[in-house]
C-alpha cells in the first residue's frame, strides 16, 4: 500500500500545482494562456495515450483467459446475466436521480448564463445526427479485430474476445492450454507495465488541470456556480445510493475497496477519463480479492454499459437546457426521455464526449433547441471530472458485487 499512497499524494500535489500554475498564467500572463494551455496539455495527452496503448491488448488477453478458464458455459451466462441486471438497474437509478433532482433544484430557472456562440457546439451538433440502430450494430460487431484494436473499440474487442474465449473453452485442455498460458503471461506483463505508466499520472494531472484553469480562470465558477453546485449535489446523492448498495453487499469490506481504488478515482477525476484508469482498476480489483476471471469479464462490459455518472448527467443536462429555454415538459415526456437515454447511451460508448452527443440528439427529439449544448460546454470539463470518477466507482462496485454473488471474492486481499 506504500507505493499506492505515494502515488495518491503525488497526484494531489500535482492537482494543486496545476490549479496554481494555471491561475497564475490566466491572471498574470493572459496573452500567453492559449499557447501555454496547448503545450502543457500535452502532458495529459501523453499519459492518456500511454494508457490507451495497453487497453486493447489487456482487455483481449484477460477476457479470453478469464472465459477459457471458466470452461463452464453456464457460469459465463450466469455471470453475464448478473452483470447486465446490475448495469440496467444502476443506469435507471442514475437517470432517475438526475431527473428527480434537476426538477427539484431547477438550476435552469435561476442560473443567469451569458449567451454562447452556437458555433462552439457545431461539431457535436453534426456528430449527433446520424445515430441509428444500424450505427449501434456497426459499433458493436467488429468488421476486423485489427481495426477494433487500432481504434480502441472496447465493445468490439469484448464481442470478439467472448466468442474466442468460449471457442477455446470448448476445444479441450490439450489444445487450449498453451494458448491460454501465453495470453496469461502477456496479461501479467501488461499489468506490470501499468505500474510504470501510473507514475506518469501526476504529470498528466498537472497538465490537464493547468491547461483548463489557464484558459478559463476562476471566474467561470462564479457564472456557473448554481449549475455546478446542483450537479455535484446530485452526484453526491448518486454516490450515497451506490455506496449504500455496496455496503449492503460487501459489508465493511466496502471501505477496503474504497482505499484500494482511491488512486484510480483521483486520476479519473483529474484527467476526466475513466478509460485512463482501466488497467489500474483491473490490478486493484484483483488485489482486493475479486476473481480475475470475473474482473476480466465484467469490467470491459461495464465500460460500455455501466457509466453511472454519465447517465445521471444526461437527464440533468437535458432538462437543464429545457429550463433555460423555458420549455415545460410533462412527467410523461420526461419518463419517455429517460427511457430514450437508457437505450441510446448503450449504443455510443467509446465515442469522444459521448454524453454531450447523446444530449444533443435527445434535445432534438423532444423539441429542445440542441444549440443549448453551447450553454454548458464552457463548464463541461469540470462536470466531466465528477462523472468520470463516478463511472469508475460504479464499475468497481459492480465487479465486486458480482464476484461476491458468485462466491468468488477472496476474504484475504491478493497480490498480483
Would you mind describing this structure in some detail?
The protein is mostly helical and 416 residues long. It is built from 20 helices and no strands. Helix 2 packs across helix 10, helix 2 packs across helix 16 and helix 12 packs antiparallel against helix 17. The radius of gyration is 21 Å and the shape is globular.
Key features of this structure:
cell membrane; mainly alpha; Na+/H+-dicarboxylate symporter; 416 residues; transmembrane helix
What is the makeup of the main sheet? none
Structural class of the helix and strand makeup? mainly alpha
Q: How would you sum up the global shape?
A: globular
Q: Number of DSSP helices?
A: 20
Poorly predicted sequence stretches spanning 5 or more consecutive residues: none
The radius of gyration is: 21 Å
| Annotation, overall tally of beta strands | 0
Average pLDDT for all residues: 83
SSE arrangement, N to C: HHHHHHHHHHHHHHHHHHHH
How much strand content do the residues show?
under 5%
Question: How far apart are the termini?
Answer: 13 Å
Helix content: over 70%
What's this model, at a glance?
This protein has 416 residues and is mainly α. It is built from 20 helices and no strands. The mean pLDDT is 83.
Amino acid at each position: 500500500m506504500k507505493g499506492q499512497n505515494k502515488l495518491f499524494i503525488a497526484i494531489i500535489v500535482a492537482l494543486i500545482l496545476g490549479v496554481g500554475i494555471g491561475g497564475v498564467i490566466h491572471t498574470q500572463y493572459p496573452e500567453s494562456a492559449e499557447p501555454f494551455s496547448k503545450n502543457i496539455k500535452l502532458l495529459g495527452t501523453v499519459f492518456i495515450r500511454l494508457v490507451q496503448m495497453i487497453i486493447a491488448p489487456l482487455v483481449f488477453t484477460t477476457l479470453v483467459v478469464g472465459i477459457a478458464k471458466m470452461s463452464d458455459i453456464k457460469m459465463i451466462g450466469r455471470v453475464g446475466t448478473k452483470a447486465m441486471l446490475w448495469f440496467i438497474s444502476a443506469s435507471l437509478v442514475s437517470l432517475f436521480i438526475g431527473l428527480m433532482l434537476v426538477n427539484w433544484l431547477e438550476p435552469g430557472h435561476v442560473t443567469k448564463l451569458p449567451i454562447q456562440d452556437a458555433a462552439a457546439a457545431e461539431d457535436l451538433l453534426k456528430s449527433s445526427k446520424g445515430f441509428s440502430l444500424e450505427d449501434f450494430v456497426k459499433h458493436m460487431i467488429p468488421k476486423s479485430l485489427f481495426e477494433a484494436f487500432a481504434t480502441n473499440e472496447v465493445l468490439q474487442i469484448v464481442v470478439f474476445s467472448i466468442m474466442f474465449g468460449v471457442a477455446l473453452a470448448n476445444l479441450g485442455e490439450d489444445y487450449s492450454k498453451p494458448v491460454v498460458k501465453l495470453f496469461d503471461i502477456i496479461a501479467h506483463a501488461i499489468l506490470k507495465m501499468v505500474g510504470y505508466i501510473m507514475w506518469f499520472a501526476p504529470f498528466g494531472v498537472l497538465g490537464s488541470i493547468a491547461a483548463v484553469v489557464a484558459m478559463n480562470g476562476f471566474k467561470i465558477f462564479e457564472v456557473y456556480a448554481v449549475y455546478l453546485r446542483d450537479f455535484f449535489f446530485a452526484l453526491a446523492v448518486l454516490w450515497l445510493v451506490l455506496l449504500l448498495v455496496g455496503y449492503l453487499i460487501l459489508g465493511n469490506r466496502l471501505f477496503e475497496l474504497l482505499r484500494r481504488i482511491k488512486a484510480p478515482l483521483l486520476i479519473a477525476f483529474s484527467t476526466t477519463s475513466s478509460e485512463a484508469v482501466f488497467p489500474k482498476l483491473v490490478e486493484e480489483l484483483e488485489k482486493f480479492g475479486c476473481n480475475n476471471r470475473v474482473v476480466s469479464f465484467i469490467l470491459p462490459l461495464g465500460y460500455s454499459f455501466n457509466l453511472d455518472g454519465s447517465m445521471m448527467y444526461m437527464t440533468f443536462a437535458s432538462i437543464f437546457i429545457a429550463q433555460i429555454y423555458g420549455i415545460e415538459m410533462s412527467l410523461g415526456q420526461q419518463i419517455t426521455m429517460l427511457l430514450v437515454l437508457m437505450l441510446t447511451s448503450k449504443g455510443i460508448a467509446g465515442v469522444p464526449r459521448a454524453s454531450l452527443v447523446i444530449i444533443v440528439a435527445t434535445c432534438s427529439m423532444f423539441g429542445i433547441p440542441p444549440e443549448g449544448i453551447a450553454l454548458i460546454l464552457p463548464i463541461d470539463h469540470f462536470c466531466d471530472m465528477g462523472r468520470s470518477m463516478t463511472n469508475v466507482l460504479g464499475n468497481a462496485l459492480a465487479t465486486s458485487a458480482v464476484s461476491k454473488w458468485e462466491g468468488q471474492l477472496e476474504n484475504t486481499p491478493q497480490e498480483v
